[in-house]
Amino acid sequence: MIANVPAIELVDVIFKVSEVGRARSHRLGHRTVHAWVLGTVTALPEAVVLDGLTQVTYNPAPERPATFTGPDGVPVRQAARVLFACAPDNPARGYAWV
Q: Percent helix, strand, coil in the chain (nearest 5)?
């Protein structure tokens, strides 16, 4: 399925970062697609509730770890359930929430 949706929920999620792609991004000096997630779609929620969920991000900066991380900096490599949705304070920016 290909679609633009305001939110999507996946289960059995694996967070991936390509070291080769990350190095190429640094070498070229611009953004590339080298980080992604794999999982099974379970829902396309219309209403999003983020209470109790933690934001997961990826920062490709050379001084940062080559992993997705939680707010405490701990690497996140997999999750049973992930909700992809916009932050309440920034509806133009989507994030992963576990």
A: 10, 45, 45
